[in-house]
Each structure stands twice: as structure tokens, then as C-alpha cells.
Design brief:
heterodimer; A: mainly beta; four-stranded antiparallel β-sheet; globular; B: mainly beta; six-stranded mixed β-sheet; 12 strands
Chain lengths: 112, 113
């Protein structure tokens, strides 16, 4: 595809459920980022992959959050035992190394 | 660490009015500076950028000048249109090779006819 795609676009989860959010980056982009955007706030960095290697996970808020990119392309952000404070839009971005990031439309997660 | 402070919205303007959205930053060294825009229902898009002091980034009639002396990167447009209604984010990358980005809180702009 022409841009970064994310699925699902909307997800409602009951507190305690596990969720998996998918990101399809632009083909050939080495770098992949996940950000969390709470309502009325700017995006905040969660984690970074260079190819399949997770080089920075300093922004993951707890050990309930886990991300992977096993083949250096598609990435999945998994949240275990969701809590209400996890409600946010999760943004994925990809780029060539050190270059402009291209963002997907995001997945809006609502935890009830 | 890096941080960005931008004026909170919402900002409501009439069509053809002049726009300024203030942004100041704190960073080690002299990073690049960005403005991103988020139109309703769409993903973040890079609007403009400046890579060094006194550079002016411009796109779609928007401009911002990298002011090292005031650590500012204010966004301006001389005549806004209804189609400019969106949320605008000031941002800067970290100094590492992979450019993790720190964003401001975002300023919602609504332009009325």
C-alpha cells in the first residue's frame, strides 16, 4: 500500500482482556515506532524497532505492554489485562533510517 | 530530556484571519524542529520542518522560523481557510540516529466561514 496502515481502527475491550494492535509499515522502511496518544494530549513514544530488533522500549508504561516485529515488517503491539488508563489512540509510524516518519491513522482503544 | 511547550487551544478564527501558534522547546544541542498536523479522521502529517537556527520552514502557506535565541518555533499563516481546521503539534526529535519524536500537547484550530 501507499501508506502506513493499522488495524483495527477501533477496538473496545473489557477491563482485563488482552488486545493486539497491528501495524503495516511502508514497504522498505527500516524504522518503526509506536506512540500512545491520550485524549487531548500529544503522542508519546512507546517503542522503536530497527528492522526486527527492538532497540528502545523505554516508553512502554508497564510490563503489560509488549511489541514485536518478527520479520522486520509488520508489527504488533499487545496489551495484556487491559486497564481503563490504557484507553488511547495508538499510533504507528515508519521511516527510512533517520528520516521523516510517516504515521498511520491509529487504533482507538476504549477499555470499559 | 527534550520537551516542547505549545499554546493550548482551542483557537477559533474567522476565515482569512492571521494565525500564530506559539511553541517553545528545551533540548540538548540544536535539534531539528517540526510542525505536524492532524486533520479530522486522519493520521499525523509532517507540515514543515527546520533543521538549524534561523531556518524557515514553509508549506501550504504556513511558516515557522527556528529561533535559537528564544528557543521558539512559532507557526504562522497570513490567511487561514476553513480547510486548515485541524490539530497542530510542535515536535522535536531526539539526538539519536532514529529520531524518536517528542510532541507538544497540540493546538486545535477551528476556522469558521
Amino acid at each position: 500500500g501507499a501508506g502506513v496502515s493499522q488495524s483495527p481502527r477501533y477496538k473496545v475491550a473489557k477491563r482485563g482482556q488482552d488486545v493486539a494492535l497491528r501495524c503495516d509499515p511502508i514497504s522498505g522502511h527500516v524504522s518503526l515506532f509506536w506512540y500512545q496518544q491520550a485524549l487531548g494530549q500529544g503522542p508519546e513514544f512507546l517503542t522503536y524497532f530497527q528492522n526486527e530488533a527492538q532497540l528502545d522500549k523505554s516508553g512502554l508504561p508497564s510490563d503489560r505492554f509488549f511489541a514485536e516485529r518478527p520479520e522486520g515488517s509488520v508489527s504488533t503491539l499487545k496489551i495484556q489485562r487491559t486497564q481503563q488508563e490504557d484507553s488511547a489512540v495508538y499510533l504507528c509510524a515508519s521511516s527510512l533510517l533517520g528520516r521523516e516518519q510517516y504515521f498511520g491513522p491509529g487504533t482507538r482503544l476504549t477499555v470499559t | 530530556g527534550n520537551s516542547v511547550t505549545q499554546m493550548e487551544g482551542p483557537v477559533t478564527l474567522s476565515e482569512e484571519a492571521f494565525l500564530t501558534i506559539n511553541c517553545t522547546y528545551t533540548a540538548t544541542g540544536y535539534p531539528s524542529l517540526f510542525w505536524y498536523v492532524q486533520y479530522p479522521g486522519e493520521g499525523l502529517q509532517l507540515l514543515l520542518k527546520a533543521t538549524k537556527a534561523d531556518d524557515k520552514g514553509s508549506n501550504k502557506g504556513f511558516e515557522a522560523t527556528y529561533r535559537k535565541e528564544t528557543t521558539s518555533f512559532h507557526l504562522e499563516k497570513g490567511s487561514v481557510q476553513v480547510s486548515d481546521s485541524a490539530v497542530y503539534f510542535c515536535a522535536l526529535p531526539n539526538s539519536g540516529g532514529y529520531q524518536k519524536v517528542t510532541f507538544g500537547i497540540g493546538t486545535k484550530l477551528q476556522v469558521i466561514p
